[in-house]
């Protein structure tokens, strides 16, 4: 078994986890260009996985009233209204990342540079756990509750999780969360997120959200095949003049070694509330340990030198 | 479509992936607009002006599909020289009677056929009983060929009349009326016309909000004219597709829950016209010498009566025709509600319907129900129509006092769709069998169970009665096999009876052409005959599309005769050849001497294209080999409708009843033949030239959100749907928000002459002000899903509406009105009533005077 790229870079995660002859890696390709925001994915997910509602709050965030992915929303549909102002929707958050669009791009656009963009757009996108190739949540889990499945996905075992919550800040996308309520719901206190319907996969079924999606915006399948299909779709959209179409999370060279759930977007990731350049938070563990080791060594050497010097 | 029919929208997405262009015309930017190539906002209620503009564009530039138009429409037919158009009569057609506000159709007839018209006195009664609805599939009845001019030059041929009628619907007029800029309008014209013709077809898809106007039928007619002119009817990829509002609403029109129709669009008899069995049959087109398929109406009628009364129905007693109830006037849902308020209606059944929230003028609905003796509600939850007596807005205002409300409500739990078997009939007229997935819990039962056992118990109660009025019930053939611990009747047995069978042998009929008039066959709905052909439940077929051709004839079953596209004879040219390779669908096979193709031909299969009906022929024989529209008496698609519509032979732009604008096209402001109920609780806001239109200065429209189902009975009681849209809100543009000081997520209330309701403010650029007649008009949009019951509650948008109806089918104008929008929550209790009263006073809506319906001096007095 190879241990190269165990924490960073391209990798077959199931083999890396010790499965000798795993089935092809499974994943989602979410094509947001044909998402109609019907939220069937959200409902199907909750029905199948017995995820409780998270309260009845009008958020005023266009038609989004579940807000974000979390313990009680394993699928979340974002609604982005893009017009002259920012009414009825959240403005894109400047995360201070180098890839946030600069003034130059804005100026180019104002000059009519991106001609396929009408003066008003309503973007919709169904978000989900990325099932990273390098999953920090899994790396930091002290109990082994989070594990890599034979399909290459990442799943929480509810009965093993002790609710320590280390996984929560580890996730570069802010997906996993401990369930806080409602009272009476199952798994309160336990880390919760999309399982890619591990139980359905085992029975040869596709995940509930993909099954329910009426327009096939959510596509489930072998990750390799989905990546090919996605490239073709982007090319087709470019040919049709939709130059803003781009993939997100498909690249094995990216900060999480490629996501098991990746997306076709029509704008920058930040517009949809996605981090532009996510990096597995455990990537730097080896070098951190190395540096810590060097520092500790230096300290020891210094101490030893002090003692040795003291004898003189 | 994506908003209210997300599952059906997958096919639009598929078409887009194959290169289709999607244009979305809607006052509100919806989920459909988000994906469409072009979004065209227009002022609510101006669709005929918009479509009339496109018709004008087609005719001005002669872009019509001329061969198709000549052969398959009545473009060449010549209309009576007495006909006068709206241009001459300030928005009225000839034959208008000012007293009854109805038309004498004599001058609308084909030249020389003026005696075919219905007299005006009868059209008044027809409006009361929505008879055009009864006639909707019957078409014109004719006894011979009308005169024609194939050069289309005769000044009174339909083509020239159309051209004159729509000449004033210019792009500039469209821009002025609809608020659609000229260039954008022309883009739509170009897209539609360039994508129609031999090689290409365009589909017109509407959702049923389109029908909910005082001119709703004429909306659809305008679409039909356009699609006929462009050759888009009866051809693959074309057509006019009505997205019905519920899972089987098409089915409940075919086997109707309407007061004026019987199964298969047979006419519910009335004493004036249908004193005898023979008169009934003849009125449906089954008279001697009649042309077309309705000539067989006697067989359809006899088989229905045999299905109802079995062996008691014989030729000697006119198959129990006299047992059929008669209608005596307007028994529509709105008339009935007002009659409840007046104490004339004592009992009410509601099945899967929530009028307290879902119907126009919610207050009238609830006050009516509060004045009944008894009310039966069968639903999944305790909806507002069952709980109005304890938690409606009228309880808050003191108009309904729970302790005093005498209505006895029987709430009976219903089985959900997965808990019972049967068929759904969807918008393509396709019947799909539904299996029962699980037993309904507790006391929940299917509708079939309820009605079968209710009928059984009533019959048991009446057994032995000698009262003649009990005979129709006691003589019913009421014997279906039952099964299981709850004695559930067999839905398949019912479908088998609907299909029809030979009485002697029980052999299921394969086609309605096997129906006999002598009582040897019976069948409950002639258009459904074939769904049980060969004793097989054809609706249950589930052969995947991948295992058959694109038309997929072996998936479910489509009426009539499993035909997927109606009038598909028009997919071939007059000689029977496909218009093009690309659009080949059905065609004439000369060698075999029969029609063939991908679909079941909608034509007599062995009738050659060259067949010409001999003089004096009647019935189906009178249809020539190129009469593609076989249900029409003249075999032609009707660009101009001489018979059957009460408000005119051509769609004409009238303003909505509540409108901020004068009709820019004619002196006549709104539909002159509309049905109004003028009573204190049903005041309409001022419109057009009336004084005080500024009291209600904004336009509003209502529709659905994906997350909820109509009146909310199937969604607001479920946590997963409630959390997705938890509160009533009102969508306004940033400009309107600024004008009225509305804050995003703050509260506002919306006021009309009927009610004031509140909701949270949703400021969004999806709503945009339009420029109409040089003024800025603001449109507000409201979802209508909420009520006082369920997990998430809120005010009901339908409370805002008054009741004013399309004269043809008695559908309410519920998709456009005027209102005021104010910041903050609405008042409570008596203060709420005072607020609405104050608005009425300011708008001059007091006393016994009502604004005139007629705003032109034309028409005749009687």
Q: Can you describe this structure?
A:
The complex is a heterodimer of chains A (312) and B (862). Chain A has helices spanning 13-16, 40-49, 103-110, 136-140, 167-170, 198-202, 208-212, 223-239, 285-311; strands spanning 26-31, 75-82, 121-128, 146-148, 154-156, 177-178, 191-192, 218-222, 246-248, 261-265. By secondary structure, chain A is α+β, with helices and mostly antiparallel strands. In chain A, a hairpin with a 5-residue loop joins strand 4 (146-148) and strand 5. Mean pLDDT of chain A is 88; it is low at 98-117. Chain B has 862 residues and is an alpha/beta fold. In chain B, 24% of the residues lie in helices and 13% in strands. Chain B has 24 helices and 30 strands. In chain B, helix 3 crosses helix 9 (182-194). The interface between A and B is large, with 37 and 38 residues.
Key attributes of the depicted protein:
heterodimer; A: 312 residues; alpha+beta; Alpha-Beta Plaits; 2 domains; two-stranded antiparallel sheet; 9 helices; 10 strands; 27% helix; 14% strand; globular; B: 862 residues; alpha/beta; Rossmann fold; Barwin-like endoglucanases; 6-stranded mixed beta sheet; 3-stranded parallel beta sheet; 24 helices; 30 strands; 24% helix
Q: What is the structure about, briefly put?
A:
The complex is a heterodimer of chains A (312) and B (862). Chain A has 312 residues and is an alpha+beta fold. Chain A has helices spanning 13-16, 40-49, 103-110, 136-140, 167-170, 198-202, 208-212, 223-239, 285-311; strands spanning 26-31, 75-82, 121-128, 146-148, 154-156, 177-178, 191-192, 218-222, 246-248, 261-265.
Give a topology summary.
The complex is a heterodimer of chains A (312) and B (862).
Chain A: H1 13-16, E1 26-31, H2 40-49, E2 75-82, H3 103-110, E3 121-128, H4 136-140, E4 146-148, E5 154-156, H5 167-170, E6 177-178, E7 191-192, H6 198-202, H7 208-212, E8 218-222, H8 223-239, E9 246-248, E10 261-265, H9 285-311
Parallel strand pairs in A: 1-10
Antiparallel strand pairs in A: 1-8, 2-3, 4-5, 6-7, 9-10
Chain B: H1 9-17, E1 23-25, H2 31-35, E2 38-40, H3 47-60, H4 66-72, E3 96-97, E4 102-103, H5 120-128, H6 131-134, H7 158-166, H8 171-178, H9 182-194, E5 204-207, H10 216-229, E6 240-243, H11 251-254, E7 261-262, E8 266-267, H12 277-286, H13 297-309, H14 333-341, E9 347-351, H15 355-358, H16 362-369, E10 374-379, H17 384-391, H18 393-397, E11 408-413, E12 422-425, E13 430-434, H19 447-462, H20 471-474, E14 482-483, E15 488-489, H21 491-499, E16 501-502, E17 521-522, E18 557-558, E19 586-589, E20 594-597, E21 675-676, E22 698-703, H22 719-722, E23 729-732, H23 734-740, E24 747-751, E25 756-763, E26 770-772, E27 775-777, E28 779-783, E29 804-805, E30 817-823, H24 830-842
Parallel strand pairs in B: 1-2, 5-6, 9-10, 10-11, 22-28, 23-25
Antiparallel strand pairs in B: 3-4, 7-8, 12-13, 13-18, 14-15, 16-17, 19-20, 21-29, 22-30, 24-25, 24-30, 26-27
């Amino acid at each position: 078994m190879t241990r190269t790229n165990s924490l960073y870079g391209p990798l077959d995660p199931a083999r890396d986890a010790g499965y000798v002859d795993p089935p092809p890696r499974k994943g989602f390709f979410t094509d947001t260009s044909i998402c109609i925001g019907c939220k069937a994915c959200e409902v199907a997910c909750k029905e199948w996985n017995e995820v409780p509602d998270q309260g009845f709050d009008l958020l005023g965030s266009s038609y989004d009233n579940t807000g974000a992915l979390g313990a009680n929303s394993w699928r979340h549909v974002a609604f982005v209204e893009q017009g002259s102002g920012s009414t009825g929707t959240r403005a894109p958050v400047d995360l201070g990342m180098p890839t946030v669009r600069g003034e130059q791009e804005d100026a180019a656009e104002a000059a009519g540079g991106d001609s396929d963009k009408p003066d008003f757009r309503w973007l919709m996108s169904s978000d989900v756990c990325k099932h990273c190739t390098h999953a920090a949540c899994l790396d930091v889990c002290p109990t082994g509750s989070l594990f890599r499945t034979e399909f290459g996905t990442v799943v929480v075992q509810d009965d093993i999780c002790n609710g320590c919550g280390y996984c929560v800040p580890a996730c570069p996308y802010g997906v996993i969360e401990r369930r806080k309520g409602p009272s009476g719901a199952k798994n309160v206190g336990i880390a919760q997120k999309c399982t890619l319907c591990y139980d359905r996969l085992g029975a040869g079924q596709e995940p509930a959200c993909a099954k329910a999606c009426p327009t096939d915006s959510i596509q489930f399948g072998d990750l390799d095949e989905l990546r090919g299909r996605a490239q073709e779709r982007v090319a087709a959209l470019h040919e049709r003049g939709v130059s803003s179409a781009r993939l997100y999370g498909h690249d094995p060279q990216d900060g999480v070694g490629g996501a098991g759930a990746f997306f076709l977007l029509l704008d920058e990731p930040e517009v949809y509330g996605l981090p532009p350049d996510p990096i597995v938070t455990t990537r730097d563990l080896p070098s951190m340990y190395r540096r810590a080791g060097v520092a500790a060594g230096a300290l020891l050497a210094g101490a030893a030198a002090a003692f040795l010097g003291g004898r003189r | 479509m994506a908003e209210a029919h997300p599952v059906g929208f997958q096919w639009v997405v598929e078409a887009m992936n194959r290169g289709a262009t999607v244009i979305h015309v809607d006052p509100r930017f919806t989920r459909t607009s988000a994906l469409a190539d072009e979004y065209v906002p227009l002022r609510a209620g101006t669709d005929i002006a918009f479509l009339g503009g496109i018709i004008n564009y087609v005719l001005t530039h002669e872009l019509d599909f001329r061969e198709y138009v000549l052969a398959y429409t009545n473009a060449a037919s010549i209309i009576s020289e007495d006909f006068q158009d709206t241009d001459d009569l300030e928005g009225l057609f000839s034959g208008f009677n000012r007293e009854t506000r109805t038309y004498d159709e004599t001058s609308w007839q084909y030249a020389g056929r003026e005696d075919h018209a219905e007299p005006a006195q009868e059209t008044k009664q027809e409006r009361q009983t929505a008879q055009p609805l009864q006639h909707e599939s019957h078409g014109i009845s004719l006894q011979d060929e009308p005169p024609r001019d194939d050069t289309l030059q005769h000044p009174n041929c339909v083509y020239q009349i159309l051209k004159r009628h729509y000449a004033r619907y210019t792009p500039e007029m469209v821009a002025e009326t609809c608020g659609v800029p000229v260039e954008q309008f022309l883009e739509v014209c170009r897209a539609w016309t360039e994508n129609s013709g031999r090689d290409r077809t365009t589909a017109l898809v509407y959702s049923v909000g389109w029908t909910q106007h005082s001119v709703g039928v004429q909306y659809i007619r305008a679409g039909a004219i356009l699609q006929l002119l462009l050759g888009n009817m009866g051809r693959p990829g074309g057509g006019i597709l009505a997205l019905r509002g519920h899972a089987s609403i098409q089915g409940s029109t075919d086997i109707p829950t309407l007061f004026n129709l019987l199964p298969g669009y047979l006419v519910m008899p009335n004493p004036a016209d249908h004193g005898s069995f023979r008169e009934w049959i003849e009125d449906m087109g089954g008279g001697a010498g009649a042309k077309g398929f309705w000539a067989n109406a006697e067989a359809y009628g006899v088989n229905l009566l045999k299905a109802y009364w079995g062996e008691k129905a014989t030729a000697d007693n006119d198959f129990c025709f006299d047992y059929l109830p008669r209608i005596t006037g307007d028994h529509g849902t709105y008339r009935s509600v007002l009659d409840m308020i007046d104490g004339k209606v004592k009992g009410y059944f509601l099945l899967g319907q929530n009028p307290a929230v879902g119907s126009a003028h919610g207050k009238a609905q609830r006050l009516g129900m509060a004045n009944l003796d008894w009310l039966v509600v069968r639903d999944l939850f305790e909806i507002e129509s069952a709980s109005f007596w304890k938690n409606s807005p009228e309880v808050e205002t003191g108009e309904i006092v729970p302790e005093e409300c005498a209505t006895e409500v029987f709430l009976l739990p219903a089985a959900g769709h997965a808990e019972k078997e049967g068929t759904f009939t969807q918008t393509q007229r396709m019947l799909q069998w539904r299996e029962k997935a699980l037993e309904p819990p507790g006391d929940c039962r299917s509708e079939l169970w309820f009605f079968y056992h209710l009928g059984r118990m009533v019959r048991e109660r009446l057994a032995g009665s000698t009262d003649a009025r009990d005979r129709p019930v006691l003589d019913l053939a009421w014997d279906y096999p039952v099964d299981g611990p709850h004695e559930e009747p067999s839905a398949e047995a019912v479908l088998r009876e609907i299909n029809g069978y030979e009485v002697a042998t029980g052999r299921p009929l394969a086609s309605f052409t096997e129906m006999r008039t002598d009582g040897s066959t019976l069948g409950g709905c002639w258009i459904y005959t074939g769904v049980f052909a060969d004793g097989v439940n054809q609706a249950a077929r589930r052969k995947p599309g991948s295992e058959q051709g694109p038309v997929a004839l072996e998936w479910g079953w489509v009426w009539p005769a499993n035909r997927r596209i109606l009038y598909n004879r028009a997919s071939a040219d007059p000689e029977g050849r496909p218009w093009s390779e690309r659009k080949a669908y059905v065609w004439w096979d000369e060698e075999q001497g029969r029609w063939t193709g991908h679909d079941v031909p909608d034509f007599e299969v062995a009738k050659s294209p060259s067949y010409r009906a001999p003089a004096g022929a009647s019935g189906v024989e009178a249809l020539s080999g190129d009469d593609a529209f076989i249900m029409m008496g003249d075999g032609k698609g009707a660009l101009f409708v001489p018979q059957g519509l009460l408000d005119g032979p051509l769609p004409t732009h009238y303003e909505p009843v509540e409108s901020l604008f004068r009709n820019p096209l004619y002196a006549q402001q709104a539909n002159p033949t509309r049905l109004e109920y003028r009573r204190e609780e049903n005041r309409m806001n001022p419109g057009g030239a009336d004084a005080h239109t500024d009291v209600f200065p904004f336009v509003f429209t209502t529709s659905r959100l994906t997350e909820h189902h109509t009146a909310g009975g199937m969604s607001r009681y479920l946590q997963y749907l409630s959390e997705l849209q938890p509160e009533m809100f009102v969508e306004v543009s940033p400009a309107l928000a600024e004008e009225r000081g509305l804050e995003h997520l703050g509260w506002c209330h919306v006021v009309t002459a009927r009610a004031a309701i509140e909701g949270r403010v949703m400021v969004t650029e999806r709503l945009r002000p339009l420029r109409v007649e040089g003024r800025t008009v603001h449109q507000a949009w409201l979802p209508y899903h909420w009520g006082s019951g369920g997990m998430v509650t809120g005010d009901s948008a339908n409370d805002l509406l008054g009741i004013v109806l399309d004269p043809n089918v008695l559908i309410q104008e519920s998709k456009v009105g005027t209102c005021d929008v104010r910041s903050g929550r609405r008042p409570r209790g008596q203060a709420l009533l005072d607020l609405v009263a104050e608005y009425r006073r300011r708008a001059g809506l007091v006393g016994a005077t009502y604004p005139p319906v007629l705003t032109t001096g034309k028409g005749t007095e009687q």
